[in-house]
Amino acid sequence: MSQGNAFADGCAHVAGNYVPIAQAGIPIRDFGFLRSDATYDVVHVWDGSFFRLEDHLDRFFRNIGRLRMTCPLSRDAVAEVLIECVRKSGLRNAYVEAICTRGEPPVETRNPRDAVNRFFAFAAPFVPYADADAKRRGLHLVIGSLRRIPPESVDPTVKNYHWHDLTAGLFEAQDKGADNVVLLDLDGNLTEGPGFNVFCIENGTVLTPGRGVLDGITRRTAIELCTALSIPCEETDIPATRFLEADEVFITSTAGGVMPVTRIKSRVLGNGAPGPITQRLDDAYLALHQDAQYLTPVAYDD
Ligand SMILES: Cc1ncc(COP(=O)(O)O)c(C=O)c1O
Known about the structure:
Blueprint: E1 11-14, E2 17-20, H1 31-34, E3 38-46, E4 49-51, H2 53-66, H3 75-89, E5 94-104, E6 116-125, H4 132-137, E7 139-147, H5 164-175, E8 180-184, E9 192-193, E10 196-202, E11 205-208, H6 217-228, E12 233-235, H7 240-244, E13 248-253, E14 257-264, E15 267-268, H8 276-288, E16 295-297
Parallel strand pairs: 7-8, 7-14, 11-12
Antiparallel strand pairs: 1-2, 1-6, 3-4, 3-5, 4-16, 5-6, 9-10, 10-11, 10-13, 13-14, 14-15
């Protein structure tokens, strides 16, 4: 921790107070902890500005409503807390998370209807999914043997902590010497990975699953960039066989932007280097971080 700022490793907001991140705790009976009964959102700060903060807030509040929860803070107040967590930390590059949990019902009942919902937030140093070296060489993915929880059971567009399938897949990928995993749905179509959406490129057309996945903000940005750059893009079912034969593959996430994939299982894509369309989208994504309409600057003390 840097001298003088107790929040330099990150700042959390718990029960209405700002605390150094290492001191932030969750009441043990909170259903968010006991039952994963929570929704959350993650927005990044690069070079001192939030990226697409309003879109993250839209998604966060939509999902709180879908879980029949009420955020104890207004949307403006949530925005203020997120900005304040970053300002206090002094972090120029941060991973900023807002969480709404079911809270805890009174001791004499277990009824989630009786629970008072809670809001938590924190800003922590930004740790990219893929460092510069991994981005240059491209990621190595495998297809996990477990299937993604079906959307008929858990709505994947409500950002959630039902991650057992994704985490098991990540262990499996690492056991096989790969960087990460993508999971298929019960019909054998591509879904997503632990914290990212997936795209593939076939004869110049960008394809991404249209259902059974989170409506990622980075995914949306990539789709919008395709339109802006006149690159055909389709949201569609992608069977594993089609995915494995793609010309290019990339993944998208707030925690990493547009990240090239150069190997799936034992298949090396293209010439083993990030593909040209992926590269164009990555460059365009990075350029959007200079575009004021997407940015919310933080007014730091220094
Ligand atoms: C399951 C899942 N899919 C996709 C994403 C990517 O979404 P975004 O671009 O909004 O970060 C995430 C982000 O955490 C995720 O958890």
